[in-house]
Amino acid sequence: MEQFITIAATFFIFISPVIDAQTPISLENAYKKALENNLDLKTGKLHIDYQDRIKGSYAVIDPLRISGEVGQISSAYTDNKFSVEQTLRMPGFYKSQQKVLAAQQKNAVLSLEVQKWQLKREIALLYNELNYQSEKEKLLLKADSLYVNYYRRAALRLKKGESNILEKTTAENYRSQARIQLENLKKDREISLYQFNYLLNDEVAYDIQPSGFYHSFPDESQFSGCGSIPLQHLEEQKNIEKAKLNAEKSKLLPTISLTYNNASMFGNGADNHFYGRSARFHSGMIGVGIPFFNGAQKSVMEGQKIIILIAENNYEVAYKILKNQYQVSFSAFEKLKNETDYYKTEGLKNAETILKTADRLYSEGEINYLEWSILVSQSLDIQNRFIDAQKALNEKVIELNHLTDSSLKTN
Fold first, then answer.
1. Which CATH superfamily is domain 2-60+98-251+300-403 in?
2. Model confidence over 191-215: pLDDT tens digits?
């Protein structure tokens, strides 16, 4: 996330006109745009294309060996001979290599899905952040309006001699603080928009649709275990290492050598016939290569067994980490939901009552400006804490949905 902030800050300096006009986009459409255009995903797609191109390489055959021979091969006369030799491996060797490539191709697909899985989380968090900043902006505009009216009344009271300069100065300070916070929030939102549009990587500048901030429930209520996309990826890593072990074992299978010889024999043959230089004689040979000295290869196999254990342990560690993350996030979700439920049912009503009452009492002269400012600050603080709690709740919902997402979209 820090990397995106750095990139966004750089964009903010050099490309400020982008923020001038944005097209509203829903969260689902933002997902679609990012999955189509994101640059990191394009690299993942190229990895899949690479694995697809090399999937036929399992059938690599040893080079055909052609050799020639000239000299006194069969007699004192000069003869010539050429040979063609081909070494073939057993079918099990090629099948094991094919399975390795198939597993690697599936792993490339799953790697891309993990990238998509992470990208969706980043987009959802940014979407929530932009919603949060919009809600904060509404609250700060409300505070600004309150303090502007307060300042006008304080200035009028001072003019009439009904108050001192301290009340007017306090009002001006409150108004200035609200406006500074509002300006800072606008800058923060511009940076968030740059981050958001960087992930979408589209020529159109987008902003969120102003809806969907106050949601409460995750899509799933239980951790889906091995269905989680990262765990599917790690499961395939285990399959790759097991396929590699079988491929190493297949190297201990015998090899078959087929040889064809074609030679001349000038002079009398064993059948007491005379053969001229144009006469050719043929022969064939079959050989079997047995890996008798296989200690080195067995060492490789033993090492590969350790790699399989590492892959299995990585899966178990990741499973426990994801399950723990789910349990922690769900506990936090329940706590935050109780908090936001309180604000929705009681807290916000109390805040509104405090605000209206304070304003009425101050207008009627029953409370002074210090009491009014304390009450207004209390009311705004309640509303502010509700927005903060809702943002945190949304983040937990995103996290829970993220951890339980087992869908694969390979298009």
1. Outer membrane efflux proteins (OEP) (1.20.1600.10)
2. 999 999 999 998 899 999 877 777 6
> CA of 77: how far to CAs of 70, 72, 80, 266, 387, in Å?
11, 6, 10, 6, 103
Q: Does the predicted model carry a pTM greater than 0.70? A: yes
The answer to which of 12-21, 227-236, 262-271, 311-320 has the lowest mean pLDDT is: 12-21
Give the residue among 290, 266, 263, 261 at the shortest CA–CA distance from 277. Answer: 266
Q: In what order do the strands lie in the sheet with 255-264?
A: 65-71, 79-89, 255-264, 280-289
Looking at the chain, the number of H-run helices and the number of E-run strands are: 9, 8
Q: What tokens does 108 get? A: 């490339």
User: What pLDDT was estimated at residue 220?
Assistant: 52
User: Does residue 319 surpass a pLDDT of 70?
Assistant: yes
Q: What percent helix, strand, coil does the chain show, rounded to 5?
A: 70, 10, 20
Indicate the domain borders of the chain.
Answer: 2-60+98-251+300-403
